[in-house]
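Bumping with the actual sequence this time:
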Amino acid sequence: MKLENLEKQLDGKLFYDHTMRTLYATDASAYKEMPLAVAIPKTKEDIQKIIAFARENNSSVIPRAAGTSLAGQVVGNGIVVDISQEFTKILSVDPVEKSAWVEPGVIRDELNLHLQSYKLFFGPETSTSNRCMIGGMVGNNACGARSVIYGSTREHLLEIKGFLADGNEVTFGALTNAEFEDKCNGVNVVSPLEQAIYVQAKEILSSAENRALFDENYPKKSIPRRNTGYALDLLADSQPFGDPTEKFNFCKLIAGSEGTLFFSTAIKLNLVDALKPFAALVCVHFNSINESLKANLLALKFKPDSVELIDHYILECTKENIEQSKNRFFVQGDPQAILAVEFLRDTQEEILESAKAMEELMRSENLGYHFPIVFGDDTNKVWNLRKAGLGLLSNIPGDAKAVAVIEDTAVDVNDLPDFIEDFNAILKERNLNCVHYAHAATGELHLRPIIDLKTKEGAGLFRTIATDIAHLVKKYKGSLSGEHGDGRLRGEFIPLMLGEEIYQLFIQVKQTWDPWGVFNPGKIVNTPPMDTSLRYTPGQDTPMPETYFDFSEHNGILRAAEMCNGSGDCRKTEKSGGTMCPSYMATRDEKHTTRARANILRETITNSTKENRFDDEALLDVLDLCLSCKGCKSECPSNVDMAKLKAETLQQYHDKNGVKFRSRLIGNTPKINQLFASVPWLYNFGSKGILGNIMKRSTGFATERTLPLMHKITFAKWIKSYRQTGNFIQGKVYLYNDEFLNFYDVEIGQTAVKLLNRLGYEVEIPEIGISGRTYLSKGMLKEAREIAEKNTQAFAKEMPEKAILVGIEPSAILSFRDEYPDLCRGDLKEKAKSFSSRAMLIEEFLAKELDEGRITSASFTANEERVRMHGHCFQKALSSLVPLKKILMLPQNYTVLNIPSGCCGMAGSFGYEKEHYDISMKIGELVLFPAIRSEKEATLISASGTSCRHQISDGTSRKAFHPVEILYRALK
């Protein structure tokens, strides 16, 4: 009842149902704890009311941004307050002062996109920069790759506004000595609580004994990444206690305080000049980690802007990741480690000079064996590979994973080689292997031992190894937390690291700032044992339900869902590019991320007591807005294939509850089309006008949406009567007559045949049936498997050895490459695997022929045209847009520009369904529709997918052409 009353008071939203609480029970850490509720505040007043409620009801407030914390900072039993939806404004930019005021939900990369016009930049850059938010960066005092130049967020935090635990709004910033004394005396304070925190600061920091404790026990001052505990030592270094040139500013304390002292609503940041114009990475290859760390010290002599380590575990994982395998272009052989040494300079010559000198020095010390230099846009590919490290580590097969437990240690960079040698010796004693990656330049490597937390032995190692390494870090006077924070993971080790006396000071600080225990309790101080409230219970069962898809690669569907480690790559927005995840991009709602879907699937399969573990309406609700675009299959570094997981879930649900009428209607569309093949006019008559609207309403389709119309003749009938002419010197092409081509896109098929004939190819249509895409899209896997098996057998019968099956519709032809091997079993599975590489998009085929010299630009016009191309989701996930662009540029004077859109929003039947129509159009409006509307009518719009072309027509009233149509009209 109390939560219901709070809900009524808020302008924003409050959720306390089991599903939403489950989705917010985890972050990117090893922890899980059910919150009391989840709040999405809309105004500052909402936050104020939530704080008051927590204070009055002995509850707590847990601030959350992107939820990528690795130490359990946003996991707890209070009210999780998600600021990522509403508190996203860039409030002001002052180019003279070089500062900006932002709300805490502003994404770091999007802030820098905004600052480009000012030629300014916010320096700290985490690996999660395309989705992490400024509030989270302040909470953890985030650093990132270029911290050797820009330091941490703390160094750039000028002022901060927000709420104290008593609910009063306050601003913290730099103070003169006089202003500081006024605050201590109760002048210019918002409440007695504000006065009390200044008085306490004066008492603690005035003590010579305390300052001596700080000097003796805090990490070495030479370590830039030092986030252990509260930063009282840095406050002590400012006036009136230390450096007379450094004004007192509580921002130093708030940065890294993990939301335990204060709730921020606006943040003022220092900005720096934009990056220098020329960038390069020298990607030095090594035979061992130890070699790379010794070389790191040599690299620092040349003042690089960053030095990042990538070890062989991560490099191995990139081989199996669709997206990251494309970014391995610079890797030679199988190095044990690569140092990516970044140089940003005013000229390329300066970079080459530094790179050459560095290589000579390293070779003279017998360090490194390959020194490729990567320039320009290719550097982004290297950075993307490095940033994907966290997610990629989930690709290690089995329950043993690279665990975040000692991943944030930082030491003096000169101590790093010896520290890592000692570190690995400890792991060897425990029979553990470890992943090494990240910030070599500043003495911090993200070190992740591979542990199975589902076992009692693994859970024991979790604590043991944390304790062992804490003692090792203490020996080097390092920091147990460099940038990921203490949270509930490292809090209990603070007395060991800094001493009991300093820890007691921390407890006093927390008590003074937050006497009610409202703000994120159990983090930094008074933390629960670090091996409690884990995501996995030691000794837990891992259910292995029988499935229609083959999940043996992951050892079952549950482990396939568990591949998601919470890194939140699916929370990037359309401004960052890519396809994953269209529903999140449109809604900005955690519930509609790939992460949320994986979480709910994991929890449901693990904990359900039903015979059919998938028989769960809440599960279906969370999966509902998954468009099955397959963006996650390639872009998620953990390779979570949510389209496959959703289809399996739907079939399992159908087994218990039956298939709903509309789903069966959509799945059986090819059969319905076949019934109307001789009278397509009748089908079309019932799909348009008044009758069409009646049909749409009665079947659950959106009346705003036009329906695709059948062609007057099927492609199969046309090709039988069509007499191909020409000199077929290039041989024969086997063209796949899929269900979309046969009934709807006949004219595109006709054009494709004519184009291939003109280019010297004879076209043959093999007797291979429909792809089953309509069944797959609705989770009707029984029917889809039958089709996959028949088509695999037909492929073996109809296709000559090594012959390629060429397809026009991406969602159809790529079924052979993607789903068929997972649907077939036994010998057919092996055949399906072997055939998968012989199923090609027509764009891939034409690009291959171009590369092999059988097609040239000589066949095409010299006229000028402008083409904007939109790639199909499956094309981007399972193939590439490179072949598409390559063939569209066959006419030498065609200017071809990619539209940086993700999913168009139609996604097969999704955009036709009445409950999905609005979100479908909203997805289209993110990038695709505005880009097309901005083009002149003469610009050609290319779209390979039948759904994409329909969505473009409905959303912009522009006709989009299949690439073969554009090429055919460009023939001489």
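The tokens above came from a reply further down the thread. The first helix runs from residue 2 to 9.
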